[in-house]
Amino acid sequence: MIHSASPVFKTILRNICFLFAVMCLPGNRSVANNESVRFAEKANLALRRTAHHLLIANGDTLSAIPPVKQLDANTFSIRMEHVLDYAKLPGLLQESLKMQDITSGYNVAVLDCDKGELRLGYNFLELKQKDGVACQKRKNEGQCYQLQVSFIPQKQEANSGGQNWFMLSLGGALAGLGLVAWNKSRHRKITEPTQEALISPKLEFSKSYLDIQNQTLVSGNIVQQLTFRETKLLGLFARHTNQVLERDMILKSVWEDEGVTVGRSIDVFVSRLRKMLANDPHVKITAIHGVGYKMEVHS
């Protein structure tokens, strides 16, 4: 049985490799790439317009607006020197995004330029609340801030009939491969499920838990919305509680697969997570000098 299936197995593998090669041609990726470029351009314009009107609100019509930096596919940042009026920020930003027809949900973080510490921030859903954005009426000191907007990724739909045809062809080939593999596997030991398959969408630690699918953290009966990368980093810590994680390992697990490896990103995001976990006294993220970090969880 195994020997007779071997030529078929090889043929299906060759066909699948061919299909993947065709699907990965630049022409088939151009639509998705163009959408990403257009989104980045619109997000850039929205942040620049927001910065422009914040400057005007502070009586500044001459200062140059610094460039918008794209930190990853969904995160954009702009530097604000002494002119951040936090009370006006939510309305101006929402208005600017609406003008660019950006409907994605988002999180806003105001970071200190020197230490990268989170000073202020909100989720777009807070705009619909009766009391508005938290801390909106509080005065902020005149200093340098990084205004960072992280858009929540939306599920992508198929872009063209041609791509659907390729996916159907690939599905048929995979079905054939599965049938052959099943026939061969009857003579082999059943394999264990992968580690990822065993991971629950909700990770509990102490009196807190992380809902990975909805990107939310419940800590001390307080629900907090996380960004994609905050969820990824906290999930890594939650799966390795009371273990020392080296910086290189954290970077590769959380950032490198997106093509972004910024050394200080770890420190900035750990600082944010510490603030979010402050309501749970049994959880603490500790820096291990020269090595990395450890999330200590005590019962």
Automatic annotation (TrEMBL):
InterPro entries per record: OmpR/PhoB-type_DNA-bd, Sig_transdc_resp-reg_C-effctor, WH-like_DNA-bd_sf
Membrane-crossing segments per the record: none
A GO MF term: DNA binding
Signal peptide interval: none
Coiled coil feature spans: none
The entry's keywords: DNA-binding
Protein name in the entry: Winged helix-turn-helix domain-containing protein
DNA-binding in keyword set: yes
The organism's place on the tree of life at top rank: Bacteria
Residues annotated to bind DNA: 200-297
Any single biological process term in GO: regulation of DNA-templated transcription
OmpR/PhoB-type domain location: 200-297
Source organism: Dyadobacter pollutisoli
